[in-house]
Predict the 3D structure of the following.
Amino acid sequence: MLSLYMLDTRIIARDKQLDYTNYIDGSGNFKQTQFQTDLLSNNRKLIGDEQMTWLGAQINADTTTWKVLGQQILMTKMLIPAELLMLLNQVMTEIAHFGNAQPSTMAALSAAIGQLVILKTRYLQKILH
């Protein structure tokens, strides 16, 4: 009735996770554009070719009603905007690298939070009226 296919998305043949510290230039600035380019690259793989071939062959030959794919990566709606996560990661990287976050990064984080508050306020006003 059911086939469960478990994937290894942590160790075998996957691309190395990006390290935020590799995206800080000599002045301590986070190279956000380069990070986003690398993060969103279509060439990055979560599973290797061998595992993908195996999975395709198994599913194509499977005659069960339900085919369930299991793996370790959380898949859900993102409730925090990516821009805010990028800034939070930049803060954490700077703290790890310099011992504190740079003032410009904290100002950008504060501005992003302010923008989110405005958007949330407008959204709530629209719902309530």
